[in-house]
Structures
1.
Amino acid sequence: MLELYEGALDVPAILKRWYEEESESNYGAFIPFVGTVREEGGIDGLSFDIYEPILTSWFEAWQKKAKESDALLKMAHSKGDVPVHQSSYIAAVFSPKRRVALEMIEAFVEDFKASAPIWKYDLVDGKRIYAKERSTAIKGSGILA
Amino acid sequence: MLELYEGALDVPAILKRWYEEESESNYGAFIPFVGTVREEGGIDGLSFDIYEPILTSWFEAWQKKAKESDALLKMAHSKGDVPVHQSSYIAAVFSPKRRVALEMIEAFVEDFKASAPIWKYDLVDGKRIYAKERSTAIKGSGILA
Amino acid sequence: MVRVEFLGPISKEPKELDIQNLAELSEKLKEDESLKEWLECSAVAVNDKLVSSKEYPLKDGDKVSLLPPVCGG
Amino acid sequence: MVRVEFLGPISKEPKELDIQNLAELSEKLKEDESLKEWLECSAVAVNDKLVSSKEYPLKDGDKVSLLPPVCGG
């Protein structure tokens, strides 16, 4: 349920597959969040590094939490370069209940932003520039300082 | 941007089209909410009546509000019968900003549930039974009583 | 004349009534016992705009719609 | 020996160090001036689990990872 791809995501194909995978699961609500690379600051795109072991355990902890509410999470993310106007991230929740789904997609996406071990770089003139000022220190950072 | 269909929605096709329509619009976040008919209480499906003039003006008021935050709303809904495990509703927000998108999809879907002039019926043994106990009186109801 | 429409699950044919405001409409509709439960829980639109006051004036050609409790999605 | 890895934008080769806990690791890494800014803002994982105490004990074969500020999506 955690899918990593080289380069941009094929959003229509992923959403179609996820929707059809759960078509008989009797979920009443399906909320995907799709993140697309914005053209701003003269960038050609973004590039991503992912540390998979910790991303996987972070995702599995969320999946367990979702299951306690009878919900299901799916997530796709790009590795490497993604040009502007293409998408690098899809998170989705399926739930029997609307309220659970609305609250979970928000909490999941916000925790993803704060905790998922993914590093973002601006692509400018063929160079990869760490997006430091848009990045968030993981909770508990600085213990070695 | 408000689309009404006879019967169930073709969710993958609608999501694909909406995503592609806005692929050059420089939105960073796209959040669709998909509502699917759950199999419960022995129903064969749901059926919907829509009063289009007021639904349209309700939607247009929301679209205006979305525009003030540089966001865009799209919505599709079924008229008539929709079998279990098929979908009757998609609402979607596009926004440059994640926070705006997350807050707007929630507020939009909740106001939709409370205000949109759509009536729901359970389909049981070929009969249409008004889902009264799951329905919500529109704000300001009862002035003629 | 004012046209009165009953939306969704209120299974009533439209009526044409000679009335000046919603208060008069309320009096007329209360005569129909089968409408009692609907009047308590229905919203009212005049010419497709929801209104919140019984004093709302009506004029010849207006359309009044009764909207019972909703449940889209 | 403990293997220390620097993730994402920290461009450092992994190190093999003979240390007993994170406090010792902190002392060693502080010797490298170019790591100073990263130590202040990085989280620490031992064997791919985030840890929150400098007293965390290390044993032969452990892997320590430094995770600088993140920005997925």
Note: Chain D touches chain A through 31 residues (CB under 8 Å).
2.
Amino acid sequence: MAQIRLSSISKSIDGLHTLNNVTIEAAAGESVVILGPSGCGKSTLLNILAGLIPPDEGQVIIDGQDWTNRTGRVSYMQQKDLLLPSRTILDNVSIPLVLKGTNTKKSRTLAQQHMEEFGLLGFENYYPRQLSGGMKQRAALLRTYLFASDILLLDEPFASLDAITARKMQIWLKDFAHKHSCTIIFVTHDIEEALLLANRIYVLSARPARVLKEIALDDSANSTMVKEEILSILDSETGDTYN
Amino acid sequence: MAQIRLSSISKSIDGLHTLNNVTIEAAAGESVVILGPSGCGKSTLLNILAGLIPPDEGQVIIDGQDWTNRTGRVSYMQQKDLLLPSRTILDNVSIPLVLKGTNTKKSRTLAQQHMEEFGLLGFENYYPRQLSGGMKQRAALLRTYLFASDILLLDEPFASLDAITARKMQIWLKDFAHKHSCTIIFVTHDIEEALLLANRIYVLSARPARVLKEIALDDSANSTMVKEEILSILDSETGDTYN
Amino acid sequence: MKKFINTAKKSSALFTLGLLLLLWEKGVSWYEIPAYILPAPTQILDGLLKHHQLLIYHTSTTLLEAVAGLSLAVILALIIGFLLHNLRVLYTAVYPLLVFSQTIPLIVLAVLLPLWFGWGVLPKIIIIVLVCFFPIVISFLNGLDLVDPDQINLFRSMGATKWATFKMVKLPTALPAFFSGLRISATYSIMAAVISEWVGAQRGLGYYMTLQQKSFAIDQVLGAVVVICVLSFIMVKIVDLLNFLLMPWNRNQLVR
Amino acid sequence: MKKFINTAKKSSALFTLGLLLLLWEKGVSWYEIPAYILPAPTQILDGLLKHHQLLIYHTSTTLLEAVAGLSLAVILALIIGFLLHNLRVLYTAVYPLLVFSQTIPLIVLAVLLPLWFGWGVLPKIIIIVLVCFFPIVISFLNGLDLVDPDQINLFRSMGATKWATFKMVKLPTALPAFFSGLRISATYSIMAAVISEWVGAQRGLGYYMTLQQKSFAIDQVLGAVVVICVLSFIMVKIVDLLNFLLMPWNRNQLVR
Amino acid sequence: QSSESATTDTTEVTVILDWVPNTNHTGMYVAQDKGFYEAEGLNVKIIQPSEGGASSLIAAGQGDIGISYQEEITIARSKGIPVVGLAAIIQHNTSGFASPKDRNILTPKDFEGKTYGGWGSPAETAVIKAMMDKYDADINKVNMLNIGDTDYFTSIKTGTDFAWIYWGWTGIESELKNIDLNFIPVRDEYPALDFYTPVIIASESKIAAEPLLIEKFMRATTRGYEYAIQNPEESAEILLKAIPELDRELVLASQAYLSKEYQSDAPRWGEMKLSVWKDYADFMFNNSLIEKNIEPEKAYTNKFLPEQE
Ligand SMILES: Nc1ncnc2c1ncn2[C@@H]1O[C@H](COP(=O)(O)OP(=O)(O)OP(=O)(O)O)[C@@H](O)[C@H]1O
Ligand SMILES: Nc1ncnc2c1ncn2[C@@H]1O[C@H](COP(=O)(O)OP(=O)(O)OP(=O)(O)O)[C@@H](O)[C@H]1O
Ligand SMILES: [Mg+2]
Ligand SMILES: [Mg+2]
């Protein structure tokens, strides 16, 4: 049974039809990648899943319960790292614990235990602006993980990194997810990234987004062929290059 | 004989050793891609080639003449489109002509003739903010082309576009360069992009940048193998992921 | 929809204003406050109507001074902004003094300036310029610094002259900041003109207010204050209009 | 290197100042301008030294008023900024009136306020707060609007309360803008205190200046102006220090 | 300032001046220094007001006693602002039109073709016109300039020829500065303009509510002025002690002059005559300086002045 189920979600924003009957599922411990062109509505979909905005139609079901338009169940990481420039790395990553009511000191101690795994050991008292892009993204990941460790929504977390750093982070994330058996919903417009990380890929159309194709990637899948397939689907879809 | 020759360029910026004895050549009509990790000094190299900053050591030779620390010979397009928000697209692309002394009206007429090829027909009187990212990059390319059509320096021109749009632009640029037989120096940190566009690739090391490898790509080259080769070179090079 | 919200916004402020005026009116009559202490809004209105010809006469002078002073301040701010931006030596040498100049109380100047510049229009204009110049030049300088250095590099790589770069790149980039400074100056311009008339004027709202105040006509003084507020508001709106007209590329950002 | 440039910057402004003073001194003696028209800088300095005890006495009063008024303005700006930011209705209803309040000439208020509020510290504080409150609240509100909506969304997704979001996200984001407003207010605070003493006082620099002016001692008046400028400068520096201390994460951006 | 030894029933009295503290106010500073107020059980606080003038402030209850002048009181009363004169600090109007010697202004006739520096009030115009009319001179030939708060000595350096000054302050300063002036006293040219300035005032309501307080204040103040009349030099020192910002030379010289003018030819210090109030009110009314005439007998009272010993 699926741990997460977005069923028949439709949504218009400011009169703009953005999501058109999108149904997506993820089993526990699975890495599901949502791939779609820029502006198609991927972030909107995650916002709905996180409970930040209500869908016009459809439901968000997590562990059999209705979480539509309710926040607090899943952790959500956006494209930007969104670290607070006014706080040190340690204080930044312990925010979710503080918000849940843990006192500051204890939150810090808890967060400290994860610094090494996230490659942040020794940088606890640095401010975000003093870190490299990759480190900031890892700090944001840690913050996300500390909020809820079983379901992570990641919205293009590596899009702002250069290709080589991004690749290293992807590999790290893959290992991490495997080790902690998190359920991950990962949004991207980068096909290579999708292929590397996904157990399953949902390919979305241009706006209004609908699911064009669902592709399961088992070990036997030939990634070059899958890539060609996705490209041809998207090429025929996006239409006018000029806009 | 090479049309462009950067010989033994070294450069320190603010006491930071950035370029370390870099030698790069490009023949007329060739597309040369410079590939290197973020912050290694790629833009600095192009700035030197464009004559914007002087090298500490080495020379810039174009068509046999010394162009070290002199502007005005090559056209240069940066990662950002750098279109002026206060001018329409047509006025933006005709800036190089106006700066060369052509009167405004004539500059517009000349620029107008290229609008179709660059996919901008009908958008002459739009302001940059009204266009999509891809169109803005094409407008910036047209402006670059109108300054000097034989040598184009392109500094990560598609890095701000989403992967799918970027791919379309890459293909368009490849055709364009072929048709007009421009000499192109293209800087990127994206290996896929390098493979698609290059006749020849220079792989640079992390800062201070030096040439790690020069790879010629003829039709017989196997791109998957080249990619693996580049990745392994860079992986061993970049060292500490954490900074 | 947007239009509606804007209207709602405006009427909401008007509503608050109306409410305050009503409270004032009722309070004055309830506590039987004599008019020489605090006249009711209706009394102020009466005073305005009674003196409307005089007020128009004096207002025209003040408005003229304010517009002249503000225009001069704009011209000076553009020139000095240009110079300070391009000559860094000048910038470091002059900028702190500009800031210092803002700490001198205007009334002291209003008393001292005629000493040095006589009784003509000059000391008045100096005061208005001193008030209006600073916000414009500061914003303008900040605006000029907002220019993307890569944009400058691009123009350099195309062999553009410094002047061409200034005209085509820097000036348009600095315009929004320039206008936000101008907006502040426009708000203060009328007030500055009134203060300048405190000393040595034969007409103008400042002169009128002094006279009325000496003859205990507080309703007329407050009437003049109303006129000042309305004029200031109009000045600001004119700047907004200029802003709209001069920056066609920026238009949909004007909505506040 | 940076340190050196900073020193060079400062000394360059001091150099200009010195040059101006020298020109002034020489000009006065060259044209034989009598001291009651324009005293030379050295004469002003003499006056300052002669009256230094009196000046310290009056300065302490003015400084106290300025600090009290500015502090109150800060508190009010924080509270009202918070309210206006969170209650959009209030914002649209009150904001335009705030802007309007800036167009009322202070001297008019200085005349009218004692009529309503007597001779205590109240009318003085009202004037100082009126001058200092506005730049702070405007900058603060602008600063609060700078917050990345995605950041708010993130906090919402973590189930943060509105207050927690305000405290952890919005307040720190708005701090730099808040301080730039505070800097402007600090510049004006001393001047405002001086004007507030126009209202009727028994001590303070404003009182002192009026007295000196009516006793034909322009050197003393200008001496007081010098004191005002210096005090204003000190106030600004104190704000800069606070800025530095309260925003450790922002430190290397302080260099100007 | 006097020590606050008097314990229980000292009453606070706030005095609002008309201008910066100067030799016109010496009597009050003397009364304060010598403990005359204290002896009456009063604790007097002296405040320098804004430009507003004391009348409306006194009427508004923001202060108990004010210093004003006859013109202001007359305008105030005609506007229904209930203030009453209690004592004339100086018996005669010591003001007049002063000009540097080289301007050759000897009589009001010579005003023609000259520039007058004033503060733009209609009363000035009326007074100048009245004085010139006597000489068949044309006020339209005078260039009237509003110089606001600027002091006399700067104004005559910056384009004005004559201005209306108090001899007791500005005139004395001119002597100290060695600037030769021609001075045309107003009262010499036009007796109706020999009005009282400055005048101690209180509001009608205050007088009605606390006559005893007023009486005490006036008794002590009178002692103060009487002391100043007899001891100009010591009084000047007392003023300087209270207001050390003032210029010593000016205060000493001014006090020497004014101490003779406080009482002058009057039977006692402060006493006012109905004719002076009536004549000036009529002058103002006839020149449209007030919209309706006042009842002069209500504008002042001598009843709080202590009887002559
Ligand atoms: N707050 C908003 N107001 C108005 N329109 C919005 C808003 N947020 C999103 N949109 C519009 O909704 C559409 C979907 O936006 P969304 O951010 O979900 O796309 P996306 O797939 O995440 O794009 P990207 O790859 O650029 O992040 C876009 O076309 C955008 O213009
Ligand atoms: N104006 C400057 N002042 C100080 N340091 C600079 C400046 N420009 C560049 N650098 C430094 O020089 C190094 C090389 O910069 P450069 O922009 O050439 O790198 P790049 O390879 O183009 O990087 P990217 O891929 O991020 O564009 C960087 O480490 C950068 O920190
Ligand atoms: Mg998105
Ligand atoms: Mg670069």
Note: Chain D has a mean pLDDT of 87.
